[in-house]
Design goal:
The structure is a single chain. The chain is α/β, with parallel strands linked by helices. The chain has twelve helices and 24 strands. It folds into three domains: 100 residues, no CATH class; 152 residues, Rossmann fold; 115 residues, GMP Synthetase, Chain A, domain 3. It is 33% helix and 29% strand. The protein starts with a strand and ends with a helix.
Length: 458
């Protein structure tokens, strides 16, 4: 049993849809993969459970995705059918008709380091992850899972719903994320465990009654900034954090988070390689002990991390994406280190550090920030001085750009490369406009001088 927006959905209601699915020619496991971009969460979950039980490969796409983009994703993933809007609206993609040998779940990567790509995991490997998750992370056995994040993504679907059901719990799913509505439900539950994004968890904690604490939260997707983490942790009894990747699912869970970079102990079906200390981080490489159905045995994450021992347990820590690290004067600048410091400034409420290429000089660090008011030239100069006083010299951004808001993905992540490209495009546009104005001014001046010379008698 589970609930969707407080409406209880029984196993009988879900199973009643199975006969309908089994008679639908476009849901034939022999033909290949099916992309699903529909409004009804009940229909999606029913089809997902059916696919898992009957060996059908499905690719969930968020319901807000435009049809043209959903079709593009479906084509790229090799799906032969797209169900768009409703289960009845069947869009055929005949050029992709093919045999699917290992049924499972296809999902799109976040695309934070480049073009999003489709990644398939077999249902058997997902069962392997769920079993390892439940065995490793036993604290929630007495908690009520509340999922306030997209269930088209593995975090909400696998770690929230599949794991909750495997524990014999009643998962409660919220599709329309209204913080006050969510808060009302959380206050009625005994020992709720909220699975959500860092931004939603922060909002709920800000609204939480002052005389009590939220029982438990699980955060994933992107790390909280240090100031937000400190405020949020003070409002909850149990703060959990998990780390994973599209290829392997959940990799590690932290039950004792003392800083935002702690991502915890590795799940039992995996082995992980990383650095030996904060001073010497290395790429986090995941080794699957028993690969299933063509699953990759070794996964390179492109994330930098390291291990240490805390409370007698080996804990994994995240440092930065390798692509995001900025080398300045031969020293590594990790964006989150700078952002955490900048966000302690009383006037700054959001910030992102990104790198820009410099001809013959590698890269420079640029800071995009949101402030409580529009900075004057004096404010900006004062802010730069503040940064010099609070950061190492090599960490101080080369330039500071104030914006109204910072572009983020639905899961709260930032695509630093996209931000850098947008900034570069803006600079190029401004340069072209400036060149055009100068040219027009020079042309106008020449025309005026010519007209004047023609009026003056020789």
């Amino acid at each position: 049993m589970l609930s969707i927006d407080e409406h209880v959905i029984t196993a009988q209601q879900i199973n009643s849809k199975f006969e309908r699915f089994s008679n639908a020619p476009h849901l034939d496991p022999e033909k290949g993969s099916v992309a699903v971009c529909i409004e009804s969460t009940v229909d999606w979950l029913s089809l997902c459970f059916y696919a898992k039980e009957h060996g059908l490969t499905v690719m969930p796409i968020h319901a807000s995705t435009p049809e043209s983009l959903a079709r593009k994703y479906a084509e790229k993933a090799g799906c032969y059918t797209l169900l768009y809007g409703t289960l009845e609206n069947v869009i055929c993609i005949p050029e992709n008709e093919q045999q699917d040998t290992a049924p499972g779940l296809i999902q799109m990567s976040s695309g934070t380091t480049g073009e999003p790509k489709s990644i398939k995991r077999s249902w058997r490997s997902i069962d392997q992850e769920v079993a390892a998750y439940v065995a490793h992370f036993t604290a929630p056995n007495s908690m009520s899972p509340v999922i306030a994040c997209p269930i088209t993504h593995s975090y909400g679907l696998i770690c929230g719903i599949f794991v909750g059901l495997a524990r014999g719990k009643h998962p409660r799913v919220f599709t329309s994320i209204n913080p006050k509505h969510l808060l009302k439900t959380l206050l009625t539950l005994d020992k709720p465990l909220l699975y959500s994004s860092p931004s939603m968890i922060e909002t709920v904690c800000m609204l939480w009654p002052k005389n009590s604490k939220l029982h438990a939260v699980m955060t994933s997707g992107t790390l909280m900034s240090a100031p937000v983490f400190s405020r949020t942790k003070a409002k909850v009894n149990h703060f959990f954090q998990q780390y994973g990747c599209s290829e392997a699912g959940c990799v590690a869970i932290s039950e004792y988070v003392d800083n935002t970079n702690t991502i915890g102990e590795v799940l039992g079906h995996l082995e992980v390689e990383a650095g030996e200390s904060l001073a010497a981080p290395a790429e986090i490489v995941i080794n699957v002990k028993q690969p299933l159905d063509g699953q990759c045995a070794k996964i390179h994450t492109n994330d930098l991390g390291y291990f240490d021992n805390r409370k007698g347990k080996k804990q994994l820590h995240f440092v930065a994406r390798q692509d995001d690290t900025i080398i300045v004067s031969g020293l590594n600048v990790y964006p989150k280190d700078v952002e955490d410091v900048v966000l302690t400034h009383p006037d700054i409420h959001d910030a992102v550090l990104f790198k820009m290429p410099v001809k013959h000089a590698g890269y420079r660090a640029y800071l995009q920030y949101c402030a409580n008011h529009q900075f004057t030239a004096d404010d900006k100069a004062s802010f730069k001085v503040w940064c010099h006083n609070h950061l190492a010299a090599y960490q101080v951004p080369f330039d500071f750009i104030q914006v109204d808001s910072i572009t983020r993905l639905p899961n709260g992540k930032v695509n630093r490369k996209a931000i850098a490209n947008a900034y570069l495009s803006r600079i190029d546009t401004l340069s072209m406009l400036q060149t055009k104005r100068v040219t027009q001014s020079a042309t106008g001046k020449a025309s005026s001088e010519k007209a004047l010379s023609e009026k003056v008698p020789s």
